[in-house]
Amino acid sequence: MELIKKRFLISKLVFVVTLLCFSFIHAEKDQSIIDIIQTKKLIKEGAVLIDNRPERKFVKGHIKGAINLPFFMKNHPTNKMTKENLLKAVNNKKVIVFYCSGYKRAFHALNQAKVWGIKAKMYWYKNGFEEWETSEPFISPDKS
To answer: Which end of the chain lies in a sparser environment, N or C, as judged by fewer CB atoms within 10 Å?
Structure first.
């Protein structure tokens, strides 16, 4: 009997985890995910780059021209990206590219910008700075 209960609980757990994974995959599909080639093209066309990593990472290196507006997730105390700060950074530009270290900060930042009603076309450079620094020149403290 005890074995049956354990198997039932394990099967419920597997079901819940599977459901969460599929819902996150669906959430990612709702975003305009771009790669490094598309990011470079948008930069050349004048897109605003928003770096959502913590300031300590930004000062160690970032994509040239990026504006640092750290964002972790909605209502997190370390967030520096507010609606007002984002609007000021965007300054009526029509395209915004959010990036981070290739994890989920930029994903959450883009979602929050949508909630705030930001009207620009917004993209998520999903592979972020981790990819960029291995293939492209970037700004670092000794190169600025």
So the answer is: N
